[in-house]
Amino acid sequence: MAYVGNLTCRDCGLTFTARWGASHGADEYRCENDHVVRVDQETGIMLGLAANGAGGRTLADVFGRCPSCSSELATGLLPSCPVCSGRDHDVSVGGVLG
Ligand SMILES: [Zn+2]
Ligand SMILES: [Zn+2]
Prior knowledge:
The protein is an all-beta fold.
């Protein structure tokens, strides 16, 4: 499920609004630079990357690494803080997007 809500950074105290999580049959992966890659849960194909030449490739094809910066992708990460890039947040879920 995808969520929208307020995240409060434990490092710098900034509160910002973000959305995160899987939705519409696609898992959400992030790299440490906060590039988001959405992966079809049935086929494993990365979605929405046709523009940068990654169209039709699966997560296995890129060895689980970010197509933009080659750092390792992980699922279940919260968006990083836009100010300090911290990823340790207090979470206040405002809604579920299904
Ligand atoms: Zn911060
Ligand atoms: Zn990246």
